[in-house]
């Protein structure tokens, strides 16, 4: 049976929403396992009667920590006859370099307990968007009373691999070509993860997906450019053994809404599915064909020669060696060594500046690559040209080795060490 027909059948067989469009809300508070008091708001149909399904919403990583960020979804789902708790997200213990998905799952379950304690709430589940797609399965597996799971833009890959795909896509849309694409999207982000600047980078969602026993509704925007929709759906289909319904919304973005307007059919799909599952009518597993997407690149653990300590230390030592030569006037010494010192240090500065500028300008809308020449940002192109000059001058230093002074030899050795470092980081690659 085609998915559209299945959803139509569900909407017809499931109880209709309890009311029309009016929604009421009340504030609530809950306490996390580590003692933090967080707020939130419960939304429900204005004239709710009888027992209704419930759902706790789990934030993504973007935006703020307030329940207000989830208000559009909360109100839309309440109009579908669901009692919805939109909680605040913790800020203590949560940052770009520190977060624990198991802790966030415990927070969701603390909110879930408040929702389940409300009169008139029957079977209840978890809804998670984006990062909530990593958190939701953990909460579903830990919560004995969690009856179902809904994910929107749920990542099926590790955070680091997902971010690499995300960053590569931003460069593609900006028109960037060449070695910078892999350098920035993969090697630079992996270095940051190895240095502890990328929280939970290697989290593997597969074990949690395999452990899920509740029905799962997994939704993606077909035009999602933050999480790879096709590959994520593949991982959900491969690992979820319970009832799984996979649907893609053509042309829709990562969050399935723009501002306060939800993608057409999104709330209806969630409402029909939740009402059917809560009535004990979980559908047989089904999945729509995935959209076309560029494939992600695996991010295995770094080898010893790829460690952040080695690369950061190498860059620092190279700069010191180059600057040690330039302490005296540039007129002293031999020209190859002078070229190595000046071009090498300038190449490193332009290299670091390019990567940091891309990182600073990156947002959900894309990345600011600046003016391009041959598909390269001008600072990156300068870094590559200077790296090539440095390599040639370093080899020239070696031909003068016997007659060279210590300072010239130091510059030559630094230049030779610079070559493999520059190759690794794409400065000497097309």
From TrEMBL:
Species per Swiss-Prot/TrEMBL record: Nonomuraea typhae
Residues in the signal sequence: 1-18
Keyword Manganese included in the entry's annotation: no
Keywords: Hydrolase, Membrane, Signal, Transmembrane, Transmembrane helix
Membrane-spanning parts: 308-327, 339-360, 380-398, 410-427
Top-rank taxon, per record: Bacteria
Residue ranges occupied by any Peptidase S9 prolyl oligopeptidase catalytic domain in the UniProt entry: 75-263
Name listed for the protein in its UniProt record: Alpha/beta hydrolase family protein
Pfam family for this entry, one: Peptidase_S9
GO MF, any single term: hydrolase activity
InterPro entries: AB_hydrolase_Est10 (IPR053145), AB_hydrolase_fold (IPR029058), Peptidase_S9_cat (IPR001375)
EC number: 3.4.-.-
């Amino acid at each position: 049976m085609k998915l559209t027909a299945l959803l139509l059948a569900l909407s017809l067989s499931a109880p209709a929403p309890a009311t029309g469009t009016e929604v009421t809300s009340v504030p609530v508070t809950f306490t996390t396992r580590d003692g933090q008091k967080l707020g939130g708001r419960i939304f429900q149909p204005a004239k709710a009667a009888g027992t209704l399904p419930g759902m706790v919403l789990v934030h993504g990583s973007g935006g703020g920590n307030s329940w207000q960020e989830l208000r559009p979804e909360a109100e839309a789902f309440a109009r579908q006859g669901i009692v919805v708790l939109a909680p605040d997200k913790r800020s203590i213990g949560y940052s770009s370099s520190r977060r624990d998905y198991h802790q966030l799952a415990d927070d969701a379950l603390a909110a879930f307990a408040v929702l389940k304690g409300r009169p008139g709430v029957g079977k209840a589940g978890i809804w998670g968007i984006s990062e909530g797609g990593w958190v939701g399965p953990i909460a579903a597996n830990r919560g004995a009373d969690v009856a179902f799971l809904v994910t929107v833009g749920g990542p099926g890959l590790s955070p680091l691999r997902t971010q690499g795909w995300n960053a590569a896509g931003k460069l593609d849309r900006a028109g960037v070509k060449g070695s910078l694409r892999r350098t920035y999207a993969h090697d630079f982000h992996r270095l940051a993860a190895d240095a502890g600047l990328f929280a939970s980078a290697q989290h593997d969602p597969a074990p949690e997906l395999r452990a899920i026993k509740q029905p799962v509704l997994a939704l993606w925007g077909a035009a999602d450019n933050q999480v790879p929709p096709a590959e994520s759906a593949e991982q959900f289909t491969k690992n979820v053994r319970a009832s799984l319904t996979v649907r893609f919304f053509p042309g829709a973005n990562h969050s399935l809404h723009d501002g306060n307007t939800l993608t057409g059919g999104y709330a209806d799909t969630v409402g029909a599915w939740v009402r059917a599952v809560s009535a004990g009518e979980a559908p047989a597993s089904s999945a729509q064909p995935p959209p076309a997407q560029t494939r992600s690149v695996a991010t295995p653990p770094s080898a010893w020669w790829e460690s952040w300590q080695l690369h950061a230390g190498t860059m620092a030592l190279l700069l010191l060696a180059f600057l040690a030569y330039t302490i005296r006037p540039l007129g002293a010494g031999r020209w190859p060594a002078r070229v190595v010192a000046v071009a090498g240090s300038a190449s490193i500065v332009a290299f670091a500046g390019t990567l940091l500028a891309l990182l600073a300008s990156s947002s959900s809308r894309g990345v600011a690559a600046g003016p391009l020449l041959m598909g390269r940002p001008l600072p990156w192109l300068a870094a590559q040209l200077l790296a090539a000059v440095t390599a040639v001058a370093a080899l020239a230093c070696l031909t003068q080795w016997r007659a060279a002074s210590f300072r010239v030899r130091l510059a030559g050795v630094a230049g030779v060490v610079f070559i493999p470092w520059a190759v690794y980081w794409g400065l000497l690659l097309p």
